[in-house]
Amino acid sequence: MTSLDTERSDSPHERVSAHDARQWLARERNARLTQLDAIEQSGQKDADELMAAQTVSLRRVLKEIDHAEQRLEAGKYGVCEECARPVAPERLEILPYARCCVSCQKKAV
Ligand SMILES: [Zn+2]
């Protein structure tokens, strides 16, 4: 193995590189943490039902991000948890913590 940079591989089913995935996950985490911070600092967390609900959903997303990072470390990132097919990179860019592909997601709803 001489290739240190595997980011630009031309595999037919273009898998997302770990490098990209890490960046996307970090971006999502930072965005959520910023939102959480803003809610905490507004002092409305316990007063406002909507804020409370939002806090819960932000924490849920942060857990999903943790989960995605564990899968990334395990080398399973970008593979649907339902059908084991690769998840489209476009989907992962928008939703980097997605656990499954679009068609499985639709089935789940
Ligand atoms: Zn699937």
Automatic annotation (TrEMBL):
A zinc finger (dksA C4-type) spans 80-104. Keywords: Metal-binding, Zinc, Zinc-finger. Residues 75-108 form the Zinc finger DksA/TraR C4-type domain. Residues 1-22 are annotated as: Disordered. PROSITE patterns: ZF_DKSA_2. It comes from the Bacteria. It holds the Pfam family zf-dskA_traR. SUPFAM superfamilies: Glucocorticoid receptor-like (DNA-binding domain) (SSF57716). This is TraR/DksA C4-type zinc finger protein. It comes from Streptomyces thermolineatus.
